[in-house]
TrEMBL record:
Keywords: Aminotransferase, Pyridoxal phosphate, Transferase. It is an enzyme of class 2 (transferase). Its EC number is 2.6.1.88. This is Methionine aminotransferase. InterPro entries: Aminotransferase_I/II_large (IPR004839), Kynurenine-oxoglutarate_AT (IPR051326), PyrdxlP-dep_Trfase (IPR015424), PyrdxlP-dep_Trfase_major (IPR015421), PyrdxlP-dep_Trfase_small (IPR015422). The lineage of its organism: Bacteria, Pseudomonadati, Bacteroidota, Cytophagia, Cytophagales.
């Protein structure tokens, strides 16, 4: 008998991610790919040698479910040095398959059917599907991509009896905004007043500009005690393809997190964990990253000067938004596609980060690229016929 699929989609409104679509379009049209966020340059040869060393020395079987101990210890040490918060490597540090897995498991751990989660948008694309797959309801605080500050009183008005958690991301993809000390205090107070969990996406913790400091949710004890903190080495070591991330939370929360993590992936790639553990012993390897990327941001911003974009320099991440509202009325998706096809430079339309159809006439450009790629991208943008 002919098989007819009666499969009921769990994500009926979701298609293939914008990052996949724009990277594919860039490839098809041989355009410079400033869309999906990944470095054009390779990770350090020292780090590559470490992976090689551990592969050759037989570290090729399952890692412990929570991750290899040297890496858990190295993360605990780094976090203590940077935030003052002690996470116990045995019970409070877990190695994950990228931050994506950490976020997915954290959301699944916290959210039950009917629960509401406060989400700031523009939002990274994996948050909302994860909330919905657990039967949760995202409640949006909608911000303009060029927003200056968060109105925490407005955030408070979104909280109901059903709110279980608030999801934050600093430095923020795609706006490049970063939390100030006052933001993190407001978040801590809000979470405490309303007894909420906090899911904190800090994957760009080491890419922050103009002398700002990353304010981690781990840095305030009352906040850390209710926070599911998600990090990634993909951004920090130019290794997005390794999908190596981590998760920090107090022991009781971690215990619940691990119940799900163990059945999603069980454990993650062993020799890479040992390699990153050893590489982390030298703080220069992550503390220099902000300067490296700030130069790239500045190079790109200078090279697009004079075109007529409205720009607000990115405060962190490796993304720069350019608003073309003074140049064209064209819809951002149509423009991003046209620039890729006709002018050979791919970007991400910022509307893709919103739940409703919006168009702020803004494109996101990834500047984790070689300088000549950035200059060429800017030159192509200089030639655009609007
Ligand atoms: N959160 C944000 C804000 C990101 O930009 C990314 C990057 N891809 C992730 C999470 C996922 O990180 P990973 O690649 O480690 O899964
Ligand atoms: N974080 C990357 C970005 O924002 C994309 C990661 C992915 O493709 N899933 O561009």
């Amino acid at each position: 008998m002919h098989f007819t699929s009666g499969l009921k989609s769990k994500l009926p409104h979701i298609g293939t991610t914008i990052f996949t679509r724009m990277s594919k379009l860039a490839e098809e049209h041989r355009a410079l790919n400033l869309s999906q966020g990944f470095p054009e340059f390779d990770c350090s040869p020292d780090l590559q040698r470490l992976v090689d060393k551990y592969i050759r020395s037989g570290k090729n079987q399952y890692a412990p479910m929570a991750g290899v101990m040297p890496l858990r210890e190295a993360i605990a040490k780094k976090t203590f040095e940077l935030t003052g918060r002690e996470y116990h490597p045995e019970t409070e540090v877990t190695i994950t398959s990228g931050a994506t897995e950490a976020l997915y498991v954290a959301i699944t751990t916290v959210v039950n059917p009917g629960d509401e989660v406060i989400v700031f948008e523009p939002a990274y694309d994996s948050y909302v599907p994860a909330i919905e797959l657990s039967g949760g309801i995202p409640v949006f605080v909608t911000l303009d991509p060029q927003y200056d500050s968060i109105d925490w009183q407005l955030v408070a008005t979104k909280i109901t009896k059903k709110t279980v958690a608030i999801l934050v991301n600093t430095p923020h993809n795609p706006t490049g905004n970063v939390f100030t000390a006052s933001d993190i205090q407001s978040l801590a107070k809000l979470a405490e007043d309303h007894n909420l969990y906090v899911i904190s996406d800090e994957v760009y913790e080491h890419i922050i500009f103009d002398g700002r400091a990353h304010v981690s949710a781990a840095s305030i004890p009352s906040l850390a005690s209710r926070t599911f903190l998600c990090g990634s080495f993909g951004k920090t070591f130019h290794t997005t393809g390794w999908k190596l991330g981590y998760f920090l939370a107090p022991a009781a929360l971690t215990a619940e997190f691990r119940k799900i993590h163990q059945f999603l992936v069980f454990s993650v790639v062993t020799p890479f964990q040992f390699a990153v553990a050893e590489y982390l012993s030298e703080p220069e390897h992550y503390l220099r990253l902000s300067d490296f990327y700030q130069q790239k941001r500045d190079l790109f911003l200078k090279a697009v000067e004079g075109i007529g974009f409205i720009t607000k320099p990115s405060g962190g991440t490796f993304f720069q938004n350019l608003s073309y509202q003074n140049l064209s009325d064209e819809n951002d998706v149509a423009l991003a596609e046209r620039l890729t096809r006709e002018f050979k430079v791919a970007s991400i339309p910022v509307s893709a980060f919103y739940s409703q159809t919006v168009d702020y006439k803004t494109l996101r450009f990834c500047f984790a690229k070689n300088d000549d790629t950035l200059l060429k991208g800017a030159e192509y943008l200089q030639g655009v016929i609007w």
